[in-house]
Amino acid sequence: MKKAFLFLILLSPFVSAQDPFDKTQRTAQAAIVAQPSSTNCPTHKKILAEEASFQQLKLVGIIQFPENNKAIFSDKNQQVMLIQKEDVVAQERLQIKDISPQQITLFDCMQSQFVYLTF
Questions:
Q1: DSSP state, 101?
Q2: Which domains are assigned to the chain?
Q3: Distance of CA 21 to the CA centre of its chain
Q4: SS3 for 28-94, per residue?
């Protein structure tokens, strides 16, 4: 009697288990569809100075290299960051398109327009 009872206890979990290959037991899963972004903003880039607006950033200087220039910005907490071409900065998510000794060209992807910072 003990053996029969033990056999039933060991067999019961297998009887109630779902068969993953049985098509009648499958539940319909909602298909996940990727929504296209309504903006031209790059989503894979890290945003520098994300907590500050662009108005709060201060241009400290420009470093000129033969192949590409870099800009040095500081935020309201005096944190200094080195920004280069194609970086995304500030809450407005402005993408750096060009850094020259006279101006920095930014692309505002939310409004799809270029912004020029001349100095």
A1: S
A2: 47-118 (2.30.30.830)
A3: 37
A4: CCCCCCCCCCCCCCCCCCCEECCCCCHHHCEEEEEECCCCCCEEEEECCCCCEEEEECCCEECCCCE
Which residues does 51 contact at the CB level (< 8 Å), separation at least 6? 75, 91
Residue type at 63 in one-letter notation: I
Global pTM value:
0.62
Give the whole-angstrom CA distance, residue 89 versus residue 66. 23
Q: What pLDDT sits at residue 14?
A: 59
Region 66-80: what's the mean pLDDT? 92
How far apart (Å, rounded) are the C-alpha atoms in residues 7 and 15? Answer: 12
